[in-house]
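Good morning N.,

You mentioned wanting to compare the apo and holo forms, so I went ahead and generated the holo version with nicotinamide-adenine-dinucleotide. This is what I fed in:
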Amino acid sequence: MCVVGAGYVGSLTAITMAAQCPAVHFTVCDINQALVSKWQKAVLPFYEPQLGEYFEKATAQGNLSYTEQVEAAISKADVVFICVNTPPSKPKPFEKESLGLKTDMTAFFSVVRSIGKASANLS
Ligand SMILES: NC(=O)c1ccc[n+]([C@@H]2O[C@H](COP(=O)([O-])OP(=O)(O)OC[C@H]3O[C@@H](n4cnc5c(N)ncnc54)[C@H](O)[C@@H]3O)[C@@H](O)[C@H]2O)c1
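and this is what came out, ligand included:
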């Protein structure tokens, strides 16, 4: 399994599933190297109840890893969870009334393109 995005949603998803599914490897990838480095050093960047416990369990099982090599992680996965940020988009001058109603899907579509590339290389 590959989880793209090592933030709140991606990490919690990967860590809880990895702790419960020792036979499956979960790779969490993110373009934010500083964030990846924290997870690799077991410095949890935020608090959630029981997160440390699940993280330690998955780490001890050896089925959870973090990387900034996004395309490589995607290309090795059978299943990809996309958990990247989707902030409100900045409206263009003629779209003032839509402030806060549109979503910036740039990060999401970047990951979709990476999945497309990886899929195209499958034999
Ligand atoms: N946090 C919440 O409580 C919550 C609740 C409901 C829904 N969501 C949704 O879940 C999604 C993720 O939210 P979050 O809070 O985890 O965001 P987040 O900002 O904590 O984490 C997103 C991560 O994605 C990474 N990222 C961005 N582009 C990337 C790319 N191309 N490749 C790899 N990594 C990339 C960022 O570096 C960041 O670390 C968003 O769509 C958000 O709206 C979040």
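Helices lie at 8-20, 33-40, 51-61, 70-75, 106-120.

Happy to go through it together on a call whenever suits you.

Best,
F.
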